[in-house]
Design goal:
The termini are far apart. The chain has 293 residues and is an alpha/beta fold. Helix 5 crosses helix 6. The protein has a six-stranded mixed beta sheet with strand order 8-9-10-5-11-12, sandwiched between helices. It has a four-stranded antiparallel beta sheet with strand order 4-3-6-7, with helices on one face. Helices cover 34% and strands 23% of the residues. The protein has helices at residues 3-10, 31-39, 97-104, 126-132, 148-158, 164-174, 190-201, 220-235, 247-253, 276-287; strands at 44-45, 51-52, 57-68, 71-82, 86-90, 112-117, 120-121, 133-136, 208-212, 239-243, 256-261, 264-270. It has a single domain, classed as Rossmann fold (3-Layer(aba) Sandwich), CATH 3.40.50. The longest helix has 16 residues, at 220-235.
């Protein structure tokens, strides 16, 4: 199978041409929380601990479910994120993290419930959602036989970026790829390929960026590039959601934290004030192991 066929098969986004209470007490995020917020005139309690009017939400998920055959993966997920928030999504393998990202990216359809990105329904307005979302999964979804520069120019043109060549050069410089810009993607190391994938994910400057374990394969310098990128997006009012198993790095990138366990969000709250040890306790409690107690 050609690299182009693999990318199209695996779903590169292609546009059609529990919150913390006051004082730091943890609260599980449930449908009842959301319904109570609605009665008070707020759509959902956001993980940052503030109620947010619907117009300010970058991502809104309500009672979202998704199954693969008889196996439920997402079991009534509720989540609301403001513009500019940086969400670290933690959870064990199989908890539903990747599935949630794929639903938000329109690469998987929900079975029930709703998910909105930028006010757009991911099921009914998928084409419009794809124009404002960037997605970087476990696979880089890069054309192996094209050079770094050719890949970025191609994706910029695909998204209708006005100056595709200029945007490609800016991203090459931004991600530290200038020395390899003329090399075919298949010759890149794992870390450099991840940098290229990140550049592809932001080629159209998406309002919402979805990253599945983005720190994988990145050295300290490259992780610094990722951190700066996420922070710059937040300043510009753009939202980033990423999954990770790395407590320290996740907290360094995040403004808010959520934990998925057995298909439900069992914890959501601000990253501020959390350290890796406290986060591991939350993860153990969510998994039912209690090791951190």
């Amino acid at each position: 199978m050609s690299s182009i066929a693999r990318v199209e098969r695996d779903g590169v986004l292609s546009p059609s041409p529990s919150p913390l209470r006051q004082g730091g007490e943890r609260e599980h995020l449930t449908a009842e929380n959301a319904e109570d917020a609605e009665r008070r005139g707020v759509d959902h309690p956001s993980p940052s601990g503030r109620g947010v009017p619907a117009r300010a939400l970058a991502v809104e998920v309500v009672k979202l479910t998704r199954a693969f055959g008889p196996k439920p993966v997402l079991r009534g997920v509720d989540l609301a994120l403001e513009q500019g928030e940086r969400l670290a999504l933690f959870g064990a393998n199989g908890a539903g993290k990747t599935t949630l990202l794929r639903v938000l990216a329109t690469l998987a359809r929900p079975d029930a419930g709703t998910a909105r990105v930028g006010g757009l329904d991911v099921a009914r307005e998928a084409d419009a959602v794809r124009r404002i979302v960037g997605y970087v999964g476990h696979q880089p979804h890069i054309y192996e036989e094209l050079t770094v520069r050719e890949n970025l120019r191609f994706f910029a043109r695909m998204y209708g970026v006005r100056d595709a060549a200029g945007r490609a050069e800016a991203l090459i410089a931004r991600m530290g790829l200038a020395a390899r810009a003329g090399d075919r993607a298949r010759t890149l190391s794992r870390g450099l390929l991840q940098r290229l994938a990140l550049a592809r994910g932001i080629v159209q400057e998406p309002d919402v960026l979805l990253l599945d374990e983005p720190e994988t394969g990145l050295d300290a310098q490259a992780f610094g590039l990722l951190r700066d990128l996420v922070e710059e997006r937040a300043v510009a009012g753009r939202t980033t959601i990423f999954t990770t198993h790395a407590a320290e790095r996740g907290l360094e990138l995040a403004s808010v934290v959520a934990v998925l366990a057995r298909g439900r969000i069992t914890y959501a709250g601000p990253a501020a004030g959390l350290d890796a040890a406290a986060l591991r306790t939350i993860l153990d409690d969510s998994a039912g192991t209690g090791r951190g107690r």
